[in-house]
Structure formats: C-alpha cells, structure tokens
Specification:
Blueprint: H1 2-36, H2 53-59, H3 62-94, H4 100-108, H5 115-125, H6 131-138, H7 153-179, H8 182-190, H9 195-206, H10 208-223, H11 227-232, H12 244-253, H13 258-283
Helix pairs in contact: 1-13, 2-13, 3-7, 3-10, 3-12, 4-7, 7-10, 8-9, 10-13, 12-13
Length: 289
C-alpha cells in the first residue's frame, strides 16, 4: 500500500509539469497550425479557411525572403564565431591558476545583463555622432555608418550577440573540459605530442557531446534573433538586418495578419527542427575513452 502511494505521489508530481508543458507549448503550436491555414485578421470576425494561400503570399513577399536570408546569415556567421571564441576563452581560463573565478565572472556578466540595455548602449555608441565615430575622427579615419549601413549593420548585431552570449558558451566548455581525463593528455605529452596535437586528437573529440549541445543551442538562439535586431536597427536599413522573428512580430502585431504570421512561425519551427536534427545526425558520434 505504501509503495502504491509512493508511485502515485511521483506520477502526480510529474503530471503537473507535463500539463503545464502541454498547455503552454504543445497546444499553442497545434493551434498555430490551424491559424496558418486561415485568413485570420484580428479586425475581422470571420476566419475562412484558405489552405496554403498564406504560405504562397509569404514567398511572394520580398521582405519575408530578406528575413530568411538574414536569419541564415545570423546562423552561418554567428554560430561558428561564438563557439570558437567561447572555446578559446575556456581553454585559456582552464590554464589559469590565479583569479580564475574573477575572469569567469567577468566574462559571464554580459550574459545576465539586460539584452535591451546592452542593445541600446551599443546603438548609442555606434551612432553617426557617437563615441566610436568621434574616436575614429581623432585617429584620422573616416566616420562609419555602422548600424546605418546595409552592409555593416547585420554583422555588428552578430558581434553584439556573440559578445553577450560568450559567457554562456565559455561556461559550457569549461564544464566539458573538466570531464576530459587528464591522464590521456599526460600520456600523449609523454609520447611527444605538442599542445595542438593534444587539443585536436584528444580534447576536441572528447568534447564532442558538449560541442553538439553548444551548436544546437547557439543555432536556435540565432534563428530566434529578435531583441537585438528590434532595439538596434528595427530591421533596417532597407530590411538588411530584419530577422524572421522580427518579421513575424511586425506581421502579427503591426499589420494584424495572424494567418500569415502563423504560417511564418510554422516555417521557423520547421527550420529549427530540421537544422537541430541535421546537426545532431552529422555531428553526433560515439565517444570511446
């Protein structure tokens, strides 16, 4: 009797978060599928079924195509750069014997800082008459448009996102490095392997599960680029920085086209799911100690 009560209590505790997950995550996703196949306007009482018409309209919209292109740039440029910098910092911090906690905190502070505040600080410093351009003029260089440039803006936003999330990647890699057996590196060093050979042949292969996790998390983060884009450029200039999530936001809450916004959300969901599965399929491999 006591055993049954124990299991009943365990399943009851598991049921509460499951119901929360279903009501907050699964049900809205399924409901968005329904909306994506309807002409769903907040200002209209009728929501007729239109099939794939919303998806067709999206791919005929140049701004939507630009948002897809920009989102892929965010991922292709941002993910490798963020992982590389995070790994390098983690490797350097691992070698420190003093002040390791101080530097960990220093690199992690941007991650817990308000994204809106960080975005506006960079926006102010990179204005046409901002601090950075004033410094460039004093050094004898031409002032730059930075966020006002169609060719520079997106890469500046990527750099800000990398800078703010680098503490998270650093912490993940540091945790992974602590799990790598020291005996392997010591044995390789005795056999004459240099630092680069030990890193390439021992450390990185054993970090593979951590690398996969970091890549998937970073990819999802860059695919969902929104706050930095909204606050730094609002998608401009000339839609050169608009992300897919910002496009969905404008479509839903500025133009009230919930049907097309839901269709764009389904496309984003498909991109996140397919890229995550592809990365796990390609990068995942069995680790033998």
């Amino acid at each position: 009797m006591m055993l049954k009560q124990k299991y009943l209590f365990i399943y009851s505790c598991l049921l509460i978060p499951l119901l929360f997950f279903l009501s907050i995550r699964i049900v809205p996703i399924l409901y968005s599928f329904n909306i994506s196949f309807r002409e769903w306007d907040l200002l209209s009482e009728e929501k007729p079924f239109v099939g794939l018409q919303n998806f067709v309209h999206l791919f005929q919209d140049e701004v939507f195509l630009a948002s897809i292109r920009n989102t892929l740039i965010y991922v292709i440029v941002g993910v490798p750069a963020q992982l590389l910098v995070g790994l390098v910092i983690a490797l350097l911090l691992q070698r420190l014997n003093r002040l390791k906690g101080f530097f960990r905190t220093l690199y992690f502070i941007p991650y817990v800082t308000s994204v809106v505040a960080v975005s506006w600080v960079f926006r102010w410093t990179l204005m046409k008459n901002g601090i950075v351009n004033a410094l460039l003029i004093k050094l004898g260089f031409e002032p730059q448009l930075f966020l006002g440039s169609p060719s520079q803006g997106i890469y500046i936003i990527i750099a800000v996102m990398i800078w703010q999330n680098i503490g998270f990647q650093m912490l993940i890699f540091l945790t992974g490095l602590e799990t790598v057996p020291k005996s392997y590196e010591e044995a390789a060093a005795i056999d004459g392997a240099n630092s680069w050979q030990r890193l390439w042949s021992i450390t990185l292969p054993l970090l593979n599960p951590v690398i996969i996790f970091s890549i998937v998390i970073a990819t999802i983060s860059f695919l969902q680029s929104f706050t930095q884009v909204l606050n730094m450029t609002n998608g401009g200039p000339l839609n050169s920085t608009v992300s897919l999530v910002l496009y969905i936001y404008n479509l839903a809450f500025k133009h009230f086209k919930m049907g097309e916004a839901s269709a764009a959300t389904i496309i984003l969901f498909a991109m996140i799911l397919s890229l995550s599965l592809l990365q796990m399929k390609i990068l995942n491999r069995k680790i033998e100690y």
